[in-house]
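Most newcomers find our protein records easier to grasp once they have seen one. The structure tokens are whole numbers drawn from a learned vocabulary of backbone shapes. The record below serves as our worked example for the rest of this section.
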Amino acid sequence: MEFSWLNLAIILFLVAGVLLGSLPLIGARLLAPRSRAKDLDLPYECGIPPHGSAHVRFGINYYFYALLFLAFDVDVLYLFPVAAFYPNSPGWAIFWELMIFIGILALAVVYFWRKGVFTWPRKISF
């Protein structure tokens, strides 16, 4: 194997990257003041003592809404490339493909609506 200037440059940049990444960590460890106040172990350091546990149980409806939002958000992201290509598309093929895609999304909304996912309970207990 022949050692060239390119190999030396790669090694130097690797060493420089490791040094530049580790120097702030080492400097902070050496120069930062060390204090162990009991407030540092609190979940939120806002100056107000917390009431109760930091682990609050949320209702399952929050997670349903989050999953629905992610699913439809990702699906709508597929519409942007279609909208960008649509003016240059030949014929009606893209239009009908888009209508099928939006129809499937509409059927999913109707399905979730019929299952009662969009109805929020009156009282949410934690």
